[in-house]
Specification:
Length: about 55
């Protein structure tokens, strides 16, 4: 996986986790849901990159 894309995906996942945690702490269900969604997108992108890498080898 390209290092830049990997770092970006990890960053997006971390950002989502912060949103989720903040949403829980504040009782803001919308922010919590947005955080979970960002994490899911980041996980999907990472899985896609891993699959592409596996096809190359």
């Amino acid at each position: 996986m390209a290092a830049g894309k990997k770092a970006k995906n990890i960053g997006q996942g971390a950002k989502g986790k912060v949103k989720e945690t903040t949403g829980k702490a504040l009782g803001n269900e919308s922010l919590e849901a947005k955080g979970r969604a960002e994490q899911a997108v980041a996980d999907a992108k990472q899985a896609g990159q891993k699959a592409k890498d596996a096809m190359k080898h």
